[in-house]
Amino acid sequence: MRKFSICTVLEFIRRLIQKWFHERGEKVAERTEVLTEHVTKIMMSNKAYADFMAMKAISSYEFQVLDGTRESFVNLQDRTCSCRKFQLDLLPCAHAIVAIRYEQLFSDL
């Protein structure tokens, strides 16, 4: 035998979800950074990895980036990299960060 009616359970779920959205909204309102914490961690990791790479410019927007034994090709105009992380994550991969630094497009990279 049921203890609660289906309407009571649905109302409980609605209130719980409403509470979660309210708490997340307050957390977001407190942030001063543009990027989320998750994206910031990814970018910091990519930036650290990029410090150990070498790069050769092919053109003003195409670059060959060497990271040890592997080479990747970055196209800043198309926002692509042969490692495919740039396209899949829609964030600059470590290879792209090397090229961006070379072109001095952003001072914080």
Summarize the structure.
The chain has 109 residues and is of the alpha+beta class. The chain is built from 4 helices and 4 strands; from the N terminus they run H-H-E-E-E-E-H-H. A hairpin with a 4-residue loop joins strand 3 and strand 4 (80-81).
Structure characterization notes:
The chain has a 4-stranded antiparallel sheet. It has helices at about 5-30, 35-50, 85-90, 95-105, and strands at about 55, 60-65, 70-75, 80. The chain has 4 helices and 4 strands. The protein is α+β, with helices and mostly antiparallel strands and about 110 residues long. Helix content is about 50%, strand content about 15%.
Features:
109 residues, four-stranded antiparallel β-sheet, alpha+beta, 17% strand
Break the fold down into its secondary structure elements and pairings.
Layout: H1 6-30, H2 37-50, E1 54-57, E2 62-67, E3 70-75, E4 80-81, H3 85-89, H4 94-103
Antiparallel strand pairs: 1-2, 2-3, 3-4
Helix pairs in contact: 2-4
Helicity level = 40-55%
Low-confidence stretches: none
* Computed CA radius of gyration, to the nearest angstrom: 22 Å
Count the helices. How many?
Answer: 4
